[in-house]
Amino acid sequence: MRIDVVSIFPEYLAPLELSLIGKARQDGLLDLSVHDLRSFTTDRHRTVDDTPYGGGAGMVMKAEPWAQALASVAAAQPADAGKPVLIVPSPAGERFNQALAYELAEEDHLVFACGRYEGIDERVIEWAEEYFTVRPVSLGDYVLNGGEVAVLAMVEAIGRLLPGVVGNPESLVEESHSDGLLEYPVYTKPSVWREREVPAVLLSGNHGKIAQWRRHEQYRRTAERRPDLLEAFDAGSLPRADRTALADLGYDVVDGHLKRRPDAGSQPAS
Ligand code: SAM
Q1: Residues 6+ apart with CB under 8 A from 25
Q2: Which residue lies with its CA nearest to atom 23 of ligand 1?
Q3: In angstroms, what is the span from residue 115 Cα to ligand 1's centroid?
Q4: Tell me: the pLDDT tens digits for 6-25?
Q5: For the whole model, what pTM was predicted?
Q6: Tens of pLDDT along 138-185?
């Protein structure tokens, strides 16, 4: 995969040289370049922002440096390779999640446009449609100072899904959000730490029982922390043991979906 990031703070993206993403770059699994937006300006002050039309607080990023920068990265795309995906981090975008990370990990070329100030002149987004598949994407319902932190998070989430980046691909399968549930709790040695014992089933060597315990812990944890995920979970073909565990947590399967019983109390039973 190729990734281009455009920012007025290229040094903000330095962590992408570290850890698994840095190694993926060294190993040639990920071709990632960071571009300084200011190098696409033409004035002496390398200006990238100006006051907003209509008045109001803050500054807006000027269209022309962005058009120059984006045209330059689009030109590097082979003519027969289709449009790259331009991800515009924005609190006003669609929410980033694991499903979107998987979807974007299938692409050959991603371009990230890091906004600052009040954001980028909207006409850039319209203009870019000719050269890119444009996707405004939000990291969550809060406002950051710039798109760089959002890009660090998105590139890490997408990059670790690329073949070969995570040593054991099995570890991607059982993670939170991979199947619509949160992950079960995990433990390592020693089996007793400060008088706290690891759940006995994990020491039993009984793989069937361990798998069932983990599944039930996924339901319990998801019910406690993210009931919205349980309600969206496809429960159509759950085995009876799972339905029983969910019923104990106050959830019944209705038309293939989990519905919390009105009489189940305010907190799921554990
Ligand atoms: N005025 C904008 C609004 O209210 O939608 C917010 C601008 S914010 C101060 C500056 C930049 O930070 C945005 O252009 C975007 O690149 C980035 N940003 C802020 N919050 C974000 C979020 N939740 N997700 C992704 N990017 C975000």
Answers
A1: 16, 17, 31, 32
A2: 91
A3: 7
A4: 999 999 999 999 999 999 99
A5: 0.93
A6: 999 999 999 999 999 999 999 999 999 998 888 888 788 888 999 999
d(CA 166, CA 24): 9
| SS3 of residue 259 by DSSP | strand
Asked if residue 230 lies in contact with residue 223, where contact means CB atoms within 8 angstroms, the answer is: yes
Give 229-247 pLDDT, tens digit per residue: 999 999 999 999 999 999 9
Q: Which of 230, 239, 223, 238 is nearest to 258 (CA)?
A: 230
Q: Which atom of ligand 1 is nearest to the CA of 113?
A: 16
Tokens of 209: 């029982």
How far is the centre of ligand 1, averaged over its atoms, from the C-alpha of 238 (Å)?
40
Whose CA is closest to 104, among 232, 14, 1? 1
257 strand-pairing partners: 234, 254
d(CA 18, CA 6) in angstroms, rounded, equals: 19
Query: What is the residue type of 268?
Result: P
Q: Could you give the CA distance from residue 63 to residue 93 in angstroms, rounded to a whole number?
A: 19
Q: Pocket residues for ligand 1 (CB within 6 Å)?
A: 89-92, 114-116, 118-119, 138-140, 142-147, 150
Contact 128, 101 (CB under 8 A): no
Cis status of the peptide bond prior to 10, with omega within 30 of 0: no
On the question of a cis peptide bond just before residue 190, with omega within 30 degrees of 0, the verdict is yes
Ligand 1 mutation target, pool 90, 100, 137, most atoms within 8 A of CB: 90
Q: Give the Cα separation of 110 and 70 in Å (integer).
A: 12
* Strands, E assignment, the chain: 2-7, 31-36, 49-50, 60-61, 85-95, 109-113, 133-138, 192-193, 196-197, 251-254, 257-260
Residue type, 126: E
